[in-house]
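Example protein
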Amino acid sequence: MNKNKRWEWIEYDVDEAKALQEALKIHPTLCQLLVQRGITTYDQARQFFRPQLAHLHDPFLMHDMDRAVQRLGQALIKRQKILLYGDYDVDGTTAVALRYQFLSQYHDGLEYYLPSRYSEGYGVSLRGVEYAEEKECALMIVLD
């Protein structure tokens, strides 16, 4: 652990925070935090607190997403076993849980793997790949 880390204060416009607080009728500290993150209008705050699917980025902008979707579809059609490989932190375990919950509605052959933080470290481990092989998984989806 780096003991030299220090909190950095992010400056903000007090008048913008006050105006936002008047518009939103929420605690001033929340408005300060929003302004510090560049959210300064009612509409921006509404989009932040009530996001819509239309505001999401197109996932197909990610490199080779089309190939990944095709491969997943192939595994589902061929009823191949799929390993959902997560990470031990909160976003990794949540990603696995969400994908498992969704895919299990359509596919029986799901396995999941969460590596040990202490013995396997960060990222895909040899032990995780061996687990996929042991479970005869034809596809491994790595999530984080």
Observations:
- The chain has a mean pLDDT of 94.
- The chain has two domains: 14-52, 63-142.
- The longest strand covers residues 82-85.
- Residues 14-52 form one domain.
